[in-house]
Task: structure prediction
Amino acid sequence: MKLSTLFLSSAALVVAGSAYAADLPAKKGAPAAKAATGCPAFGAGYFQIPGGDTCIKFSGYARSDNTYTSNVSRPANAPYSLSAAYGVQFDAQSSSEMGAVKSTILLEGTTSTASATDAYVQVGSFVAGKAPNILDYSLGYSATGAGYGSHTGQLQYGMPMGASTLTVALTSAENNNDTGSVRVASRPDVTANLSTTVGSLGLNLGVASHEISYSGASAQGFAVVGKIKYATPVATLSVYGGYANGASTYTGNAYTATYAPVYDSDTSAANLATSSIVQGQVDIPVGTNTSIGVMGEQRSVTQNTASYARSTTALSIKQTLAKGLWIRPEVYQTNYSSTITNGAYLRIERDF
Result:
């Protein structure tokens, strides 16, 4: 066979094969997976679930809490505690004809226990579920923080009023600040908080109505709390105070065998415990990653002839080591019934 004839025959086979392959059904590639996209309308950190209109945000923390306290009874009690805690929060938001619909779940715990700190639904200014108490004005100190500081089941609604917001809530009735006996109130607590901002000045004023149940009878207690915060480039000053009659938990004076051996009861109007708290705090920034905090506090509870008073002073330094990583050593002194107790605290926390 001539060489030219071989080349022509080979070319004809290639062309015929290509034509046949073109007649075969083409294989379709798998569709590319859609990447999650951000949700700028709901803020930083939210991303949209592919195939839906709900935006999700994950956040939380892990930390080490370490304390040392003087004047403990040895060998029954240890002067130190080395512990850990964590929190994981899930936020979901979507748009609706009623506005943004949000749900939040916050799970917090230690190495031995865990529970849902928050679990609530929010539609606009309406909140339903377990959420931070609207009278939580805690100034935020680690080992000595005052204020109410609880998360409770509630129905709450916030009403904007210009630069101010009035929030009212029906709150799961708080305990009677008692020794642990079951004394159930017949109604939820009624609370209200007015917050406003004027330039660098922030103000909060709150009231609470609480029913005390005791020995088959009931009485009505109340609490008034407030906070002033003034921020300047040099320092931030915060002052917190409150007074309660028959509602001592709202002033941070929950019953404990050591610090509050009195409790609310309603055997007579005179037996309702009166309590108060005053706390001041100054935070001073030092550079961009460090701040110094100084706090002073005075608490007291009186019921008939029983009473107690406790004062605390504390100094802390918060140092940011990297984005989301910070430490806060703290030293404090407590004076209770002329007994002075010194303590030291170290928190190491990673936020994400």
Observations:
- Residues 40-351 form a domain with the Porin fold (CATH 2.40.160.10).
- The chain has one domain: 40-351.
- The two ends are 78 Å apart (CA to CA).
- Residues 94 and 100 are 6 Å apart (CA to CA).
